[in-house]
Amino acid sequence: MGHKPEETKKSKTTNMGTPKNFLIPIMLLHLRDWNSHGYELMEKIMQFGVESVDQGNFYRMLRQLEKDALVTSEWDVTSGGPAKRIYSITEAGEQYLEVWAGSLSHYQKMLDQFFNLYNPFFTPYRSPPQKKDDND
């Protein structure tokens, strides 16, 4: 009969999204494999599985990574249209990415323990490692 507002709040699904600072290692990881324009990099990150990327925040992060000397950029005037910045990872960026990889490996172990306790019969899906194909 009576409607309890707290029940409505609990029934909503919480989507925590991607932590903002987790975008940094994803950005660096993609720049490790190829130099990229900002827009192209943002598209690759969305293909990676990040559901939504705030464009303004994304470019602020890129500029901050450049200030921190983790990435470098130069103007590309060869594309025939307006000049675009091409971003590249630096050696410091590679080292920073390596630290992140170590932290994420530790975090992965904690996640595995979490799911083992949460539901011992639940096995999170992990895609098999992809092999690079020379025919791509």
Automatic annotation (TrEMBL):
Gene3D superfamilies: Winged helix-like DNA-binding domain superfamily/Winged helix DNA-binding domain. Residues 28-98 form the Transcription regulator PadR N-terminal domain. It comes from the Bacteria. PANTHER family: PADR-FAMILY TRANSCRIPTIONAL REGULATOR (PTHR33169), TRANSCRIPTIONAL REGULATOR RV3488 (PTHR33169:SF14). This is PadR family transcriptional regulator. It comes from Lysinibacillus contaminans.
